[in-house]
Amino acid sequence: MSAVTQAPLPVSSTSSQSRPALLVILTVITAILTVVGLLMLLFYAGLDVTQGDVQRIFYIHVSAFAGASVALGVSVVAGIMYLWKRNPKWDRLALSGIEVGFALALTNLITGMVWARPIWNTWWTWDPRLTSAAIMILTYAAYFMLRAGIENPETRRRLSSVYGILAYTTVIVTFVIIRIRPDTIHPAVIGPSPQNAEGGFELSSSMLATMSFNMIVWSVFIPWVLIWWRLRIENLSERVNALRAVVAEK
Amino acid sequence: MKTPFFAAMLAIFRKDTLAESRSRELIGAMGLFALLDVLIFSFALELNREARIESVSGVLWVTIVFASILGLNRSMAMERDQGNLDVLLLAPLPRSAIFAGKLLGNFLFTALVGLAVAFVITILFNVPLFNGWMLIALLLGTAGFTIIGTLLAAMTAQTRARETLLPIVMLPVAVPLLLAAVRGTTYILNGAAQDEWLPWLSILTVLNIIFLVLGVVLFEFVVEE
Questions:
Q1: CA distance A228 to A236
Q2: B35 inside 8 A of chain A by CB
Q3: Inter-chain contact B159–A162, Cβ cutoff 8 Å?
Q4: B168 and A142 in contact by Cβ < 8 A?
Q5: Domain boundaries, chain A
């Protein structure tokens, strides 16, 4: 025990030990905003005439995808920064961004399936949009496999940065696919829907306000707070590893 | 004093084609695999006259992708096993030339196998695959797979799982290419109007350019050390 306390700490301890006040405040704000967003979509937004209450899931469904593309976009920027500066902190940010984006993309997929059951009468269909969203999630699952398969930490950081940048093409494809594939049945909420779309709707002003509010909450607050927490875990585990190395030396 | 880009690229390409012309290892393995693949599909899908037109381009592209993965793994393993990659990295030449050289070789071998597959399908299923636009689609699609594949094979060769990991990381990224290629060739085979399938070929071209730029830029980071 004494060896640990006497050893010089290889990582600066002050920033990573206590929870930063700003993060706590941001988390509380985000939690409140998320609840407000939920209350808005449940009670404030007008009822959709044709789809009924199930349409309300759209506010989360679309916003979660926006959040996922923001979080995954963060990982692209972090990946580029890592390849440029070679500071491991950028790779930790990229990993955090991808894990958060992965979770949000899953949220998007699952809420979409819940909506599709009553509207399309099926949980899943091999529609281009659905297929590309599933492929996008698989790409990021492959990212985790790639990471797990490389032992040398420097090589792992370098190659996962490269793959993280490459993988973002699937996010872009998922976003644009309903605009280039005429045979999709997935409606476009922003911009005109494809002509075969089943389950599109017009936004009234209360719906538009709810959508914008949830969009901001899910694409600005939620990803950033989650990434920050995830980054903190990664920093702490880095510190634990450094301390273990010190203990092993003694 | 660095070797100029094109000289280095052509030298690596020449090395690969010379080795291949002597061993026929890549084309042999890929070609045989592709033939088996087409046969398995024809049993599994029980391709009759109507089903053939609809599914033949799917069979063609899946076969090409799987065969290309086989070849890409082998091509990168040959560089590593004999320590050739390390020597290439030590040599005073632009890293992107290594990528371009390997890419040219991989593209040539995969395209040859792709043409052979198209020929076999033409004969076995009596679906004429040989016309100008079909061949352009075939070359564009093959180029896309080999661009991504050359980059990713250099990556997975450095991992613990190596050969197993390439399909897992490559297939999801290659899906947009596969989608455009399958759609485009299906429309061409159905004799659809030009404005139905030309957009797919343009998408394929744009994707090729994007992946090529990403490949040239990112390859330097993949093979460091």
A1: 12
A2: no
A3: no
A4: yes
A5: 20-44+54-249
| Residue ranges of chain A whose pLDDT lies below 50 | 1-15
- Measured from the Cβ of residue B168, the count of other Cβ atoms closer than 10 Å reads 18
Closest by Cα among A50, A24, A56, A51 to A38: A56
Are B214 and A159 a contacting pair at CB < 8 A? no
Tokens in use for B180? 């455009």
The percent of residues above 90 in pLDDT, for chain A, comes to 49
Per-residue pLDDT tens digits for B71-100: 999 998 888 888 888 888 888 888 899 999
Correct CATH for A20-44+54-249 of 1.20.120, 1.20.81, 1.10.150, 1.10.10: 1.20.120
A93 to chain B, closest Cα gap in Å: 19
Nearest CA in chain A to B203: A180
Domain boundaries, given as residue ranges, for chain B: 5-222
CB contact under 8 A, B218 and A173: no
Nearest to B171 by CA among A19, A170, A160, A184: A170
pLDDT given for residue A164 in this prediction: 94
Q: What's the whole-number mean pLDDT along residues B174-178? A: 88
